[in-house]
Automatic annotation (TrEMBL):
UniProt source species: Rheinheimera soli
InterPro entries in the cross-refs: SirB
UniProt keyword terms in alphabetical order: Membrane, Transmembrane, Transmembrane helix
Name used for this protein in its record: Membrane protein SirB2
TM region positions: 37-59, 71-89, 95-116
Domain of life: Bacteria
Length: 124
């Protein structure tokens, strides 16, 4: 069960980042394409399954945020990633959008490092 959840979680991470990148690039080049129904719904479905697999993993390994420092780091990193992803897609200026996009990817890299090493960076 653990391996299935882990690999599903990693798949949804890859899909989520791909949707962010595609939507970001479209927002720069062809904003009208962002009105496509698939591009409006699919990222939310993927992110929902990403969250569900994260909860499933957490319950499977019986480690929880605010009790396990590396999971607390991942949770705060997730909030930062979401906030910066929103800024990347809805920022008022081009600079704000690029800062949001690169910042979101940076937080994602930090969360990935914490997930692999199980070593907290923020709340260690």
């Amino acid at each position: 069960m653990y391996m299935a959840l882990k690999h599903s979680h990693m798949l949804f991470i890859a899909l989520s980042v791909t949707f962010l990148a595609v939507r970001f690039l479209l927002s720069l080049k062809s904003p009208a394409l962002l009105q496509n129904k698939f591009l409006k719904i699919a990222p939310h479905v993927v992110d929902t399954f990403l969250l569900l697999t994260a909860i499933g993993l957490m319950l499977t390994i019986q480690q929880y945020p605010f009790q396990t420092p590396w999971l607390t780091d991942k949770l705060f990193g997730l909030f930062a990633y979401i906030g910066l992803a929103v800024m990347a897609l809805k920022g008022r200026t081009l600079l704000m959008r690029w800062v949001g996009f690169l910042g979101a990817l940076s937080w994602l890299a930090l969360v990935g490092k914490v997930a692999i090493t199980k070593t907290p960076v923020l709340f260690g």
